[in-house]
């Protein structure tokens, strides 16, 4: 697959895509036979760590702006291992036309494969309108660690409109399917006590591992702003709200450390 950037027509947004393919290299490691990006997607390969290949996304331009259509796919083959990060937060900004932007991420992991998807936060700037979706399709023995963080507004400003959908499927069956909406025009109550309670950062951590099949995690509260719940299969989800991005990351990192300790005990 060759990834190209389509020149926008007057008044339209940017169309850009990127693709990552990870596969066993035959020597006990993971190769990256496809690492392609365009527009705001500049993909770099840091040094591998053991069996795991690493990819870092470096933002090459401001995006997504209103009207942009962005797509990112990652395919992790059977037995391969990949860690994906970004070097900076993604900032959703308003565009010239007032049209919403879309940012679609599609992830697949084969049997025995492992994916750690750990981008920096998404910041919804005032006046922006972003529709974001992330879908992960996992084979029966695949492992996944996926972190999403949303920060509503930059320092001292109100949030833009943000709609996010996160879907995780394993062996063709749903593990998690949730949609969140914040900001102007979102359903009423998004900033109330039942959702954000006045906080301006929210995040989710999804961990899927075959070991949870026989030893599901017990639901519990992780302090006043975070909760852990088992999924309908071998996995768990942590949901967090926080006053800011720093507090959000601390809570998610603490939850991940606890889940990693459980996994190492399998």
Report on the structure:
- The chain has 266 residues and is mainly beta.
- It has one domain (15-264).
- It is built from 1 helix and 18 strands.
- The chain has one helix at residues 245-264, and strands spanning 15-24, 30-37, 41-44, 53-59, 69-76, 81-86, 90-92, 101-109, 114-118, 122-124, 129-138, 143-152, 161-170, 173-182, 201-208, 220-221, 226-230, 235-242.
- Strands 3, 4, 6, 7, 9, 10, 12, 15, 16, 17 and 18 form an 11-stranded mixed β-sheet that branches. It has a 7-stranded mixed β-sheet with strand order 2-1-5-8-11-13-14, with no helix packed on it.
- The longest helix has 20 residues, at 245-264.
- The N and C termini lie far apart (39 Å).
- Residues 1-10 have low confidence and may be disordered.
Quickly describe the structure.
GO terms for molecular function: nickel cation binding. With 266 residues, this protein is mainly beta. The protein has one helix at residues 245-264, and strands at residues 15-24, 30-37, 41-44, 53-59, 69-76, 81-86, 90-92, 101-109, 114-118, 122-124, 129-138, 143-152, 161-170, 173-182, 201-208, 220-221, 226-230, 235-242.
């Amino acid at each position: 697959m060759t990834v190209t950037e389509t020149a926008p027509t007057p008044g339209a947004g940017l169309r850009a895509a990127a693709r990552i393919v990870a596969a066993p290299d035959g020597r006990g490691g993971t190769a990256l036979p496809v690492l392609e990006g365009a527009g705001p997607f500049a993909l770099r390969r840091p040094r591998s760590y053991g069996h795991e290949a690493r990819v870092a996304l470096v933002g090459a331009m401001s995006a997504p702006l209103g009207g942009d259509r962005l797509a990112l796919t990652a395919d992790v083959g059977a037995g391969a291992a990949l860690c994906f990060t970004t070097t900076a937060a993604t900032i959703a900004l308003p565009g010239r036309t007032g049209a919403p932007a879309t940012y679609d991420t599609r992830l697949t992991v084969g049997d025995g494969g492992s994916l750690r998807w750990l981008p920096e936060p998404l910041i919804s700037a005032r006046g922006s309108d972003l529709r974001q979706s992330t879908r992960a399709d996992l084979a029966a023995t695949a492992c996944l660690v996926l972190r999403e963080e949303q920060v509503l507004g930059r320092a001292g400003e109100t949030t833009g409109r943000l709609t996010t959908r996160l879907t995780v499927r394993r062996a063709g069956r749903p593990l998690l399917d949730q949609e969140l909406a914040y900001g102007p025009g979102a359903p009423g109550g998004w900033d109330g006590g039942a959702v954000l309670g006045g906080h301006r950062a929210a995040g989710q951590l999804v961990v899927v591992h075959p070991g949870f099949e026989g030893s599901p995690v017990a639901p519990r509260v992780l302090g006043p702003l975070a909760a852990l719940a088992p999924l309908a299969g071998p996995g768990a989800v942590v949901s967090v709200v926080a006053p800011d991005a720093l507090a959000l990351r601390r809570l998610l990192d603490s939850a991940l450390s606890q889940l990693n300790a459980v996994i190492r005990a399998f």
